[in-house]
Amino acid sequence: MRLILQQLRREAEGIVSYEFVAADGGLLPPFTAGAHIDLQLPGGLVRSYSLANAPSERHRYVVAVDHASDSRGGSAWMHTVPRPGHVFDASAPINDFALYEDAPLSIFIAGGIGITPFVAMVARLQALGRSWQLHYTARSRQRAAYAQALNALAHENGTVDLRCTADGMARPDIAAIVREAPAGAHLYCCGPGGMLDAFTAACAGLPPQRVHLERFAASQEAATEGGYEVQLARSGRTLQVEPGRTLLDTLLDAGVQIQYACSQGICGTCCTPVIEGRPDHRDDYLTDEEKSANRAMMVCCSGSLSARLVLDL
Question: What are the 2Fe-2S ferredoxin-type domain coordinates in residue numbering (predicted)?
């Protein structure tokens, strides 16, 4: 898609939202709550951003970007360069964090910029008349994006528990939230790694179909041990992955055409079928069952536990 940036809005300290419209002036492809779009940025960067507006809106897409201190180029560029009228190439909406709309109760646990997908989810649940709870942690009220809008909705079908750590407030007791969740409730978490790890541990005994999480940073380092060869089944080429290099580095250096975006094993763009060998899975996209099956891998961050890996490339 080609999108035009229509306006920027300061949502909180260090957080700016970007409203896009279709370059041709028409309606945008529909999306469901929890979806994201991939924006193509200069230098070959591709960044995924959750859609924060109501799914009923076809005239615009809204994303929010935190000016991260450890930015790898994406957020720093977004906060300094684009202005209204800037043209972006983008993917159609993709949803790897879908809302289960029939749940009797949806419980959201958000940290920082992880609030973004839940803004769209709450809007959808409000439209459906479904119940929800939001547990939201931010450094301060000045850093709590969308807090005022979400609080305005809470008197109808939902509740908001905002914890600001700079004010001396304790973070939400994730284990207690999960333990006290009524039967049938679906639980969602998006935030920093420590929050997601605590959520995963607390939900270990729940049916996996009721547990949903989305990461915006990798939970483990990419595999750079090297010392194995990768055979490309379609071309018959064999490449050596040297120590200190990722599998994706090796493929790109050899001119292999492969799609990738986050480079952290989160988005699933670089998912590649495995024909032979035992991958060293380092991603947060595949399920444990999919990893055990060894039929696919994320080549951006995963490596090989076997001396030879054969990929469908």
Answer: 228-313
| CA separation for the pair 286, 293 (Å, rounded) | 10
| 67 belongs to a structural domain | yes
CATH of the domain at 52: 2.40.30.10
Complete DSSP assignment for 7-33:
EEEEEETTEEEEEEEETTSSPPPP--T
First to last CA, the chain: 26
Model confidence over 238-265: pLDDT tens digits? 999 999 999 999 999 999 988 887 778 8
Domain that holds residue 79: 2-89
Strands (E), the chain: 2-12, 15-22, 36-40, 46-50, 61-66, 87-89, 105-111, 131-138, 158-164, 186-191, 211-215, 228-232, 238-241, 271-276, 279-280, 296-298, 303-304, 308-311
